[in-house]
Amino acid sequence: MNQPPPLVDFNPLACDPALGAAIGRYCGRVPALDELALEAGSGVAREHGRLADLHQPVLHTHNRYGDRIDEVEFHPSWHWLMHRAVAHGLHAAPWGSDATPAAHFIRAAGFYLWTQVEAGHGCPLSMTYAAVPALRHCPELSAQWEPGLCSRVYDPVLQAPASKLGLLAGMSMTEKQGGSDVRANTTTAARVDGGAYRLAGHKWFTSAPMNDVFLTLAYAPAGLTCFAVPRVLPDGTHNGIRLQRLKNKLGNRANASAEIEYDGTLGWAVGTEGRGIPTIIEMVAMTRLDCVLGSAATIRAALSEAAHHVAHRRAFGIRLADAPLMAAVIADLALESEAATALAMRLAAAIDAGERALLRIALPASKYYVCKRAPAVVAEALECLGGNGYVEDSGLPRLYREAPLNSIWEGAGNITALDVLRALSRDAATAEALLAELDPVTQAYPGLDRAVSLLRAELSDPAPERSRRLAVLIVLCLQASLLLQRSPAVVAEAFLGSRFGGDPTGWTMGLLPARTDTRLLVNRVTPSLG
């Protein structure tokens, strides 16, 4: 009695007005997204997500005969999730020969929907998506790997690439003594016959180590260089990638992250020798988009759980959703979700449109802010379930453990905030593109005008110690602009009043302007079963 029904067999697209509006704006109805959404909300998919997280991957360094095999065993639910994700092209569809003009946006919308089921398997999808443009720095390597990477067949068998129906790519950049400071790497690469190099050294984090090819950094004679390193060589032999151990992570447990050693491992240079950093920057931009998408998806998944719970649970004689203070909290969670989703989808559409200047500054800023909001939002959503939310069965602890990851991956907060300054220093067009995005909402709301004035001041005199402040200003102003132009007035007014109203009590969830229609805000995001 007085328990919410299981949140299964619902349509996560139908209760996500921000995503629905973005789809309508950027590409129109896409039947494949409708199908993906229905499967993402199914009880079958949600159970596979739970099982993949529960049964963590297992490393097998040797077989029963003592031979070194360096293999990771995944639960069947991992493979179930990967099979469907690859079939929907969430790993590389925008790079295929049949890609549509809105291919990056459609892929982003699908990635956002599907990672709400389970976030860990999004890692190999994201790395494959990002690897293709990097490989195109070397046409020969691109021709060799791209057809398999763009295949919509998931083939987990470890064998020669030419024998596989589909391929996945990974990244192996950081080392224990350097972390994000990849120039501190010590891995070396020595030339051998046939244009190959032999690599020697270690990597501290290599996610999805069973993928087929890895982009990695090592010092060649001309300097730090990016290399494509296959797991298995064309003749079917293993390529000397030694898996030392798997990381025991806070979250993202379905995905394996390994420490590896290169011991005479063969690799092929991607691009010009000594130009490793510029080569991987293009890859990092793509994975940072997925960090924003992944955090927006985590926020949305937590909102769905909280809104569903309060729609069915009663306390003190009323339904929780009808309690004014609870309604204010859920409504505020909905605002945070809508702002994050609208921004993530705008960035994805900017890739299709080739808006490089805007992306150069907005992507790192969004990666900084949206990813940092996720843990606070999930914590508030968890609290809406009370003690039930603190219990593993609710699914909220899994989301809570997952929430900090995207803020760390591909450059933690300080790295991404400083990258905003780098964008400004290298190209004046970045600030111009950003301010042009805000021009349509000039004088729409006094608090926003004040924030834009502060933003202009920071842009004209950027400083490292204020780079976090700059990133926050950029994102809040962008979110406000998007909601003002593309969301109902009740949404925009509540967001502006709570984020730009200057309330001296500070900012925690549930502090919305007086007379906000919280019932409307809650109803439009609450999942509908059946």
Walk me through the structure.
Strand 6 (213-220) and strand 7 form a beta hairpin. The chain has two domains: 17-274, Butyryl-CoA Dehydrogenase, subunit A, domain 2 (Beta Barrel), CATH 2.40.110; 287-523, Butyryl-CoA Dehydrogenase, subunit A, domain 3 (Up-down Bundle). The strands form three sheets. Strands 3, 4, 5, 6, 7, 8 and 9 form a seven-stranded mixed beta sheet that branches. Strands 1-2 form a two-stranded antiparallel sheet. Strands 10-11 form a two-stranded antiparallel ribbon. It contains 18 helices and eleven strands. It is globular. Helix content is 50%, strand content 13%. Helix 10 (356-384) crosses helix 14, helix 10 packs across helix 16 (467-486) and helix 15 runs antiparallel to helix 16 (467-486). The chain starts with 16 loop residues before the first helix and ends in a 7-residue tail after the last helix. It is an alpha+beta fold. It has helices spanning 17-26, 31-40, 43-54, 76-87, 103-114, 122-135, 139-149, 276-312, 324-353, 356-384, 396-402, 405-408, 413-426, 429-438, 446-460, 467-486, 489-499, 518-523, and strands at 58-62, 68-73, 169-172, 188-191, 196-207, 213-220, 223-230, 241-246, 257-269, 314-315, 318-319.
